[in-house]
Specification:
Radius of gyration: 15 Å
Low-confidence stretches: none
Strand content: 25-35%
Mean pLDDT: 90
Order of helices and strands: EHHEEEEEEHE
Strand order of the largest sheet: 1-2-3-4
Number of helices: 3
Distance between the termini: 30 Å
Length: about 140
């Protein structure tokens, strides 16, 4: 069992969007994940910055500090909106980005920044989720 506490940071959230935006855009257009680095257009970068800041402010105000407990069955998240358990079967994929893991669900994404893990916890997490982990070059 792993336990991490996440207090999201705006600059980190925007970086996650910049990392994953082109990957997700490519996947939606082509039906599969890219095998090469995909660049953002100027318009996409501006959109991520403008909308990302707004979404971040709303989410942080609503969700606040999160505590995640992860085990072989799935993970729970305790936040301002309550406690929720999500089994690994409901996680479509886990994206390994430049500064975070991004858990992809049917109804959204959950970022887990690397800074919130101890070194041994990251290794344990990657073993736990190895069948769902997708790696990209940044």
């Amino acid at each position: 069992m792993l336990s991490i506490t996440v207090n999201y940071i705006r600059s980190e959230y925007i970086e996650i969007l910049r990392d994953f935006g082109p990957i997700n855009s490519f996947k939606e257009k082509n039906g599969y994940l890219p095998t090469h680095k995909v660049k953002l257009s100027l318009w996409e970068r501006l959109t991520i910055n403008m909308l990302g800041n707004l979404v971040f402010a709303i989410k942080v105000r609503k969700i606040g500090l999160c505590t995640f407990v992860l085990n072989s069955d799935g993970f729970s998240r305790q936040s301002n909106v309550g406690k929720k358990f999500i089994p690994w079967e409901q996680v479509l994929q886990i994206h390994l980005l430049s500064s975070a893991y991004l858990l992809e669900l049917d109804q959204g994404f959950i970022p887990l920044p690397f800074r919130c893990f101890e070194i041994s916890q990251r290794a344990d997490f990657e073993v736990l989720v190895s069948s769902k982990l997708a790696r990209f070059e940044f």
